Amino acid sequence: MSIASIRTAARQSVSGLPREFWWLWTSTLINRLGSFVATFLALYLTLDRGYSASYAGLVAALHGLGGVISSLGAGVMADRLGRRPTLLIAQVSTALSVALLGFMQQPATIAAVAFVAGMAANASRPAVQAMMADIVPAEDRVRAFALNYWAINVGFAFSSLAAGLIAEHSYLIGFLGEGVLTLVCALLVFWKLPESRPEPTDAAGAGAGGEPAVSLWTVLHDRRFMAVVGLSFLMAFIFMQHSVALPVAMGADGFSPGDYGTVIAVNGVLIVAVQIPVTRLLERRDPRALLTISALLAGYGFGLTAFAGSIGVYMLTVVVWTLAEVVNSPTQMGLVVRLSPSHGRGRYQGMYTMSWSVAALVAPLVGGAVIDRFGADVLWGICAVVGTVAAAGYWLLMRGLPTEAAEGAVAPGPAPKETEPAAA
């Protein structure tokens, strides 16, 4: 491929998106460049502060639990207060709480502030996703979500490297640095991003365009959407095994932490390298087939880990499930938007975000318990089974779902009556 063709493909991948999207994209990139607490919290507590691994695990769990709780609350805020105020509140709260965490001395206060920091950090996600759906035309949303996901991974890759260097000198600098960069995100939102929320519901309960009002009860009764949330949890459960189960299994096989670092680096490098071109290639493809294939790749990618005995084979398994991640993330986000009414996107995105937050809590616990009791190979077999179940679920769920072209340019609600959505 010539340099000219590469430039043309790159221009086509980023062209045509609203200016507001790029400010939101920039905010995401800056936020991820400052990621420190979630990455190095366990090392900070055990190596720098001298606490036990059990206490570090408890604090990490509380940080994750805060994210679970805030997912739904932030989604409601995004619909009631607006996307912009929710983002400002979440980012300012995150900046203050992570900076404060670096000064906490007592175990109880560390745990409490970590819980608040987890709530604040996760609260921005439903608002970001809802705003992105608001401002990007339907035909460009999959590409927009892919570009945003690419920014997340680029930022995380650089922040992990920088945070490792910073941690060698001072963990406090890392906490304060994340606080400052998150505050920069809040200022960027304040100065550059207008409110994108559709007109709020009127007194009679009608939303924008005369659609019925949306509550959390509406979301819970949307059977097709809640099925997507359940499938999202299964996919997240599989992907989350890379953070605890994979390094534990590699350690049991005699590999070093450096070996694990080399293997898992393939994930970030591959996402950065192929996310945009792959999305460009697949954005007009059948989402039913893409989600089904991605579930099989995820399940059997981790399943293949049972046969890994060398660094090269471990890297190959990472390539397989990373391709699943590349395909699944933007496609599933596009499906979530299609099933969400415009005036209820915050609540719907909050419920979707919660599926990943719950998986972040459950997956390490289940993975560790299975490895301790039955061995890692059993866990990898379970991943293959879960991936197969998710693939079947996607295939059945999307039977009869209209194509985006048939639905029109505006993503519709889940059904004419949200309390009685069409079920697969």
Total discrete domains: 2
Radius of gyration: 21 Å
Low-confidence stretches: 202-206, 405-424
Please tell me what the overall shape is.
Answer: globular
Overall number of strands: 0
The name of the CATH topology of the largest domain is Growth Hormone, Chain: A
Which structural class should the secondary elements be placed in?
mainly alpha
Major sheet details? none
Gap from first CA to last CA: 43 Å
Mean of residue pLDDT values:
82
Level-1 CATH class name of the largest domain: Mainly Alpha
N-to-C series of helices and strands: HHHHHHHHHHHHHHHHH
The number of helical segments is: 17
Q: Which architecture of the largest domain per CATH?
A: Up-down Bundle
The CATH H-level superfamily of the largest domain is MFS general substrate transporter like domains
* % residues in beta strands: under 5%
Helix content: over 70%
Question: What report would you give on this structure?
Answer:
The protein has 424 residues and is an all-alpha fold. It folds into 2 domains: 20-196, Growth Hormone, Chain: A; 215-402 and 411-424, MFS general substrate transporter like domains (Growth Hormone, Chain: A), CATH 1.20.1250. 76% of the residues lie in helices and 0% in strands. The chain contains 17 helices and no strands.
